[in-house]
Amino acid sequence: MKRFQDKVVIITGGGSGLGAASALQMAKEGATLVLVDINEEGLEESKQAIMDVAPEATVELVEANVAKEADVKNYIEHTVDKFGKIDAFFNNAGIEGKQNLTEDYGVDEFEKVININLNGVFYGMKHVLAIMKKQGYGSIVNTASVGGIRGVGNQSGYSASKHGVVGLTRNSGVEYGEFGVSIKAIAPGAIMTPMVEGSLKQVGGENWEEAGKEFVSANPMKRFGKPEEVGYLVAFLLSDQANFINGAVIPIDGGQSYKY
């Protein structure tokens, strides 16, 4: 029996990176998917990748800006109107933002990162939790980061937003466990996604691959993680097998968060 057979799963940031990889994994396991992203072209590419390996999959695409509550309500209402329920939610969309010392970090840039990474996660949780509470079941995985459980230099906006995601996860796990809803977060480290590649190019420019070697030296495994490795973890955490994991923040970082 496929773990996601007859289950409806929403994935934000589904047009690339961790969202796309997780969507592909859950599609193989029978999920009905609602992929959400601000990038319409990325959504189409994700859907095509799914159709190539799971042509029987049902995949809905919704273009949305998660920093706008009205857009968030729309993708949630669209899902319920179309499928009648939400079994699982990968609350994943996010950006890294520009890198700078805190004193030089632009206020507009800080607000942009917070609006997408933290407010967007809050809006998703707020409106999905109301539905899951009424259903009496559901599973949520939020994307935090190693930067949400330890300091990361030159990324005050990103780190602040991801620490906030950790707080929301733990707090909501306390609030909604009694209603049959399981909430957890993942804390990825150096995973080779388009967002991480963009971050390395900020630091290293044309020599970004050299900057990448220095980046991965921070984790004991001395390599980048693969998006599909995160996809395997997300699929497990959203499945019924992980229902008793609640309020937890789970690193997937090659051991980086434990290294002194």
* Helix content, binned percent: 40-55%
Strand order of the largest sheet: 3-2-1-4-5-6-7
Name the CATH superfamily assignment: NAD(P)-binding Rossmann-like Domain
Q: Any idea what the CATH architecture is?
A: 3-Layer(aba) Sandwich
Percent of residues in beta strands: 15-25%
**N-end to C-end Cα span:** 43 Å
What spatial form do the alpha-carbon principal axes imply? globular
Q: From N to C, what is the helix and strand string?
A: EHEHEHEHEHEHHHE
Count of runs of 4 or more consecutive helical residues: 8
The overall pLDDT average reads 94
Q: Sheet with the most strands?
A: 7 strands, parallel
Write the CATH fold name. Rossmann fold
Low-confidence stretches: none
The tally of structural domains comes to 1
CATH first level: Alpha Beta
**Category from helices, strands and their pairing:** alpha/beta
How many β-strands, per DSSP?
Answer: 7
The Cα radius of gyration reads 17 Å
InterPro entries: NAD(P)-bd_dom_sf, SDR_fam
Organism: Gracilibacillus kekensis
Pfam families: adh_short_C2 (PF13561)
Family: Belongs to the short-chain dehydrogenases/reductases (SDR) family.
Any overview of this molecule?
By secondary structure, the protein is α/β, with parallel strands linked by helices. It has one domain (8-189, 225-251): NAD(P)-binding Rossmann-like Domain (Rossmann fold, 3-Layer(aba) Sandwich). Helices cover 47% and strands 15% of the residues. It contains 8 helices and 7 strands. It has helices at 17-28, 40-53, 69-83, 107-135, 156-176, 194-204, 208-216, 227-238; strands at 8-12, 32-37, 58-63, 88-91, 138-143, 181-188, 249-252. Strands 3-2-1-4-5-6-7 form a 7-stranded parallel sheet, with helices on both faces. β4, α4 and β5 form a beta-alpha-beta unit. The chain is globular and about 45 Å long. The N and C termini lie far apart (43 Å). The model has no long low-confidence stretch (mean pLDDT 94).
